[in-house]
Structures are given as structure tokens and as C-alpha cells.
Amino acid sequence: MTTTASAHDVHHAPGPTGGWRLLYKGGLLRAAWMLVLFGGIGFGLVVLARWAGGWHPILATEPLVLVAALVAAPIGFLAGVGAFDYWAYYALGFPTREEDHSGHGARSWRDYFRVNTDHKVIGIQYMVTTFFFFLAGGMLALLVRAELAKPGMQFFDNQTFNGLFSVHASLMIFLFVIPAFAGLANFAVPLMLGAGDMAFPRLNALSYWLYLLGGVVLWLSWFASGGTAKAGWWSYPTLSEAQFSPGHGQDYWILAIHILTLSSLAGAINFLVTIHNMRSPGMTWMRLPLFVWSIETYALLLLLALLIRLTSKGPVLYRQVRCGLGGRKFTLCKFRSMHPDADLRREELDALNEMDGPAFKIRNDPRCTAIGSGRGTC
Question: Does domain 108-327 fall into CATH 1.20.210.10?
Fold first, then answer.
């Protein structure tokens, strides 16, 4: 028992790698070619399925973007950075590499750009990444305020303004406020508890890379056909349905929220298990630092928001995200208008926007409810 504990306390330097081995070692280089590979596999599966089913056109943009770019390519990226290495070895029957802390710590700046299981490195990765997303969200806020400086339209059209507002709010909530706590907690909670690391180091690393991937997917929505998501950070139905949000920007937003939900869920479970089971001897509940109590509450609230009653009567945001994707792609959910006379055609809605300004600024038509009211839209 003593030998095992002492072995886990020693940090071993990773062995030298070079040449072709760099292409197969988990990291950004392998992530680049695996992203292209998995995206190509997804592309091929869609083309093969449409050809076999006799569906035309075979090269349809919507399913190709959904399967190849939004599903297969992100999985390839995560596999490339090494997020699934241990589990892949185990599932395939290969000898698994036990955690000897050789992947812990940062000996150079490159160690912050790979999968690292050290809680302090992950905490720094979280905090630096959230800072950059904060700057990006702040830049969008400046553009929104510049547009609102005077009545009428100054710099952007109606839909671009709605996109700026939607992505700004989503960035600040899902990519800054929530993960900023995760970064501070990753760095400080194990130290405050006297624990060597988080309860699940690999899951901890996976939660960060899922967070980064979700942020990249959300930001890439600007380059999607039809522009970025324009339905607000709550993505209210029916405004988020395909009829009123055409293109793929809303699909990118929905996928990004799903990925960020998985990241937050993995982090919350990790925090709760660490706080409950890895306190040092004598660290009773009444001796816990106040910061640890706040993270306990933070993680518990995340679990309540993400897990409890994930049904048709579950949390509003979850239902809107789930039904947003299901309604846009598979017609799984239907929504009723909030007003009996709210069945406006697309042309009428566009005419209202052109007359009244951006939807987030003014909505005077009595048949519509305000986007920010929480009761639905046209």
C-alpha cells in the first residue's frame, strides 16, 4: 500500500517522442487530422445513405453539415486530443496505462495545449479560456451598444443585430459565468480539501475539452449558412424553429449547448464526489472553507438543472434546446402560439421587423409577444 502511494506521488517526465510518433500522440496535431478524418467519414456515411435510399440531391447541404461538421468532426477532435485514449484502450482490450501522474503538471507552455489530468493545469486552462471568451463577448456587447446609440439602424440590419445579441448573451452565460467557477474550483478545491487531485482526473480533463469544443462550435455559427443563431440566449420556440430561423446557425447553437451541458454535468459530478469523498482526515463538514461550500452548492444546482425531470415537464431551457433540435430536424416537438391570432406568415414577420427595427428593440404588433418576456414569440 505504501509503495503504491509513493509511486503516485512521483511525477515522471514523459518519454521522448519525435518523427511520425507525433502524429499518433494525443494532442492538437493528432486532433487536426482526426477532425478531418471523422468529418470525411460522416460525409461518406451521409452520401452512402442518401444514395442507397434514392434520396436526391445526394450532396444535400443540411444533412452533411449536421452529421459531418456538427457530429462526426467534433468527436474526431476530442479523440485526437486524447480525451478518450484510456477508455478506448480498455474497450478494445489493450493494456490500459495506469495513472502514474506522468501527465500531471506543466513543464512548458505546450503542456497547456494537450489533455492534462492535473487539476491545477485544468483550472488554468479553464480560466484562460474563459478570459478569451469574455473578451469576445465584450466585443459583441460593444457592437450592440453602438447600434443602440441612436434610434434606427446604424451599422447592422435587423437579423445581424439579433445575432449579435444572441451570441453575446450565450457567450457570457454559458462560456464565461458558469465555467469561470469551474476553473477556480478545479484549481483551489483539491488544495483546500488536502486531496491529491480531483476524484476523476480523466473526466475532469474531458469536461474542459468539451467546454472548449462547445465554445468553438458556438463561435463558428457566424460562418454557417444563413448566419448565426438569432433567437436569443434562451432560443425561444417558435422563433428558433426552421420557419423563422432558417440556415444552420441555430443548429450550431443547439449543438454547442448540448456539448456545454455534458461538460457542466461531468464537472458537477466530479466536484460533488471530490468534496464528499476526498477530504483529508479531520476535514469535517463544519470545517470546510466557505469557498468549498459555495462550489458544493454550485455543483448541486447544476445537477438539479441538468438532470432532474428531463421530461416533457422538465426544465424550460432543456426542453427548448432538445425540442429545438428535434423540431428543426426530426419534427419531434410541436409548439402552440401564445396568441390565437399569432399565426403570421414569414413575409409579415419580416415586414414588421423592417418597420419597427430589430426584434429585440421594438415589437409593437399586438399579435406578437416580446422576445424578452419569457412567454414565446410570433
Answer: yes
